[in-house]
Amino acid sequence: MGTPQRSVVIASLLIITAELCFAGVSALVKYLSTYLPSEQLVFFRNLMAFLVLLPWLWRKGPSAFKTKAWKFHLSRGLAGLAAMYLFFYAIAHLPLAQATLVLLLSPFIIPIIGRLWLHEKVLPQTWLAIGIGFIGVFIFLNPTTATLSPVVAVAFIAACLAAFTKTLIRQMSATESSSKIVFYFASLATLLSAVPLLWMGQAVAPQHWLAIVVMGALAVAGQLTMTKAFAMAPAARVGVFTYSSVIFAALMGYWFWQEPITLSMLIGAGVIMVAGYLAIRTRRKA
């Protein structure tokens, strides 16, 4: 029996809401990066997520988190944290929509990593979707009429690391529960991101604490909303709406920092959404 249309509509709205939350996080990171180093923002982002998880972790109890997959958890933690550092740096130095769009290449990189690392079969339709996705990014960035910032490469590396972490999660899920994966990443990311603050931390002005709290709250709300959406409807039906984040990022960039919205950006975003839809439909058939 197919998913009821009402569930698909609600799930789609939840994903759009989640992406609005994530775009809000990016905008707050860009605002706060003027006053605080990226390392400090990464720590606060992870700390807020960990604090929200504490009541849930308390109910689970320590016995629920026994694991033998330490190498996987550590690799995922280091790669995920590195991706976060690089993405926050990219947000601080690129137009908001550009940084967001390059990170959205992550779903197209996952099959490439799966092919090279795990020797997984990649369908011709998936290669077509990947090619269309990269063409969409080229159109969006429009390097023929403007000089690209080298920070775009930083955002691309962040996208590759994000794709690597998602591939790791898929491997880990065979033996590890989602609660373990979330717990160990939140713990490791919080602890490791605290280390640079020993020499790079600085005082936070009172007026910036509200933005930090809102940033963390939006990040957690976005993750929870996204999880709920994919529990209600299959990714093949609603996954394409994850690309709405670039639209929200472009609007916020224009509103707060007067970053221009061009025709090439609109066309490129549309091409990427088509590529994302093709990729998701292909995974459903595989």
Helices, strands, pairings?
Layout: H1 5-32, H2 38-60, H3 70-93, H4 96-103, H5 106-118, H6 124-141, H7 151-172, H8 178-194, H9 197-200, H10 206-232, H11 235-238, H12 245-257, H13 263-285
Helix pairs in contact: 1-3, 1-10, 1-12, 2-3, 2-8, 2-10, 3-4, 3-7, 3-8, 4-7, 4-12, 5-7, 6-13
Shape: globular
Q: What's the β-strand tally?
A: 0
Tell me roughly what share of residues is in helical segments.
Answer: over 70%
Oligomer: single chain
Global mean pLDDT: 85
Low-pLDDT residue intervals, each spanning 5 or more residues = none
What order do the SSEs take from the amino end to the carboxyl end, as H and E? Answer: HHHHHHHHHHHHH
The rounded distance between the terminal residues' Cα atoms is 19 Å
Rg over CA atoms = 19 Å
Strand content: under 5%
Class inferred from helices and paired strands: mainly alpha
Continuous helix count: 13
Largest sheet: none
Number of domains: 1
Membrane topology: Multi-pass membrane protein
Domain EamA: 11-140, 152-278
Protein name: EamA domain-containing membrane protein RarD
Keywords: Membrane, Transmembrane, Transmembrane helix
How would you describe this protein?
It is a multi-pass membrane protein. It comes from Pseudidiomarina tainanensis. The chain crosses the membrane at residues 7-29, 41-58, 70-91, 97-118, 125-142, 148-169, 181-201, 207-226, 238-257, 263-280. InterPro entries: EamA_dom, EmrE-like. It is found in: Membrane. By secondary structure, the chain is mainly α. It has one domain. It is built from 13 helices and no strands. It has helices at residues 5-32, 38-60, 70-93, 96-103, 106-118, 124-141, 151-172, 178-194, 197-200, 206-232, 235-238, 245-257, 263-285. Helix 1 (5-32) packs antiparallel against helix 10. The model has no long low-confidence stretch (mean pLDDT 85).
